[in-house]
Predict the 3D structure of the following.
Amino acid sequence: MKSALPFALIVAALAAGPAGALAQAVAPPQNTYSSPYHAACSRPAPPAFPGLAAAATLQAQDIEQHRLARDSYFAAADANLSCLDADIEARMRTLFATGGAMDSTLRAQGLAHELASRERAETYEKFVRMCLAYEDTHGPLPGGCR
């Protein structure tokens, strides 16, 4: 998974840069760019995992089913993050080419990326906690909790 740090630095530079602020003050905002990617981006719903107390009563095959649901979600979440990355990059290239400042659409896409990335990380943590609660009661799983 890509780090959000370079994106955050670029967005901060766009937002705070004097040339960007000057361009925004002098020229009207240019919203002529339409994203070829955004319409295809779709945020998947994360799977629901049982709580820690309920995890202790699960069977090994239940954990495997939750692992499959997690992996399926990760594939969809990664595709969504890649889609958002491509959209953000295309928007930034357009802004750089036109000398425009960061617009509200780019800010919204950055926020959507941050939220999707955080949701993916939280889903991973929930699965690991559920799996470890199972292992505390039943012993190690053949595939582990990763």
Observations:
- The helical segments are 5-16, 18-26, 52-55, 60-98, 104-138.
- The mean pLDDT is 78.
